[in-house]
Design a protein that fits this description.
By secondary structure, the chain is mainly α. The protein contains ten helices and no strands.
Amino acid sequence: AAIHAHTRDEHRISLEGRLSCAAALELPVAHDILKELEATVDRGSALEVVRVADRMLSLGLRFGTNRRREVVGVSELLDRTDDPFARMSFLCLWGWCNVLSSRYQVALAIADRALDDLTRYRVEVGSPYIRIVRAAALSGLGTHADALTEIDAALDVAEAMADIPGIQNGYALKARILVASGDAYRACSLEPPDMDGAMRFVIGEVSG
């Protein structure tokens, strides 16, 4: 795609494709591709800024770096972004970064905002991941019963859509919520999901 890219938009699309592949394979070159992609961003385009911030968060999470502070201002551009997939993907990742920063109330508010978007735009594909963030935030706040209800809802949707990564991540978080609530026996009794074809970071989550 890079060889045949002649316009700025085609070049960006090729970079986004290369970045997605490198990130999925957890290759260090992904950081270089991200920098190249950042250099092409039109700062006057809310959508482009949101999308590159989304990739920054995603890549950071895959490589163990929480870049929440770097994208705080980007959230103010969401209302100027009419792409529901870009909005929800960013909100999901941003919410998770706040969970990892122990900012559970903030993460819960972000997840609720994302769920409102999901209902408004009828983009059900994002439901498992948004609910996973919401469950993690609820667990962090100590409301484990509500967190379990939320994670079960996430798993139900993921299973209905045969969303394997959603099922895998939902399983990993449910086990952690059960342990946090003091029910280690039930956590150990959960049946692990099928891990065929799983990405390396998902294998680490499920087996951890």
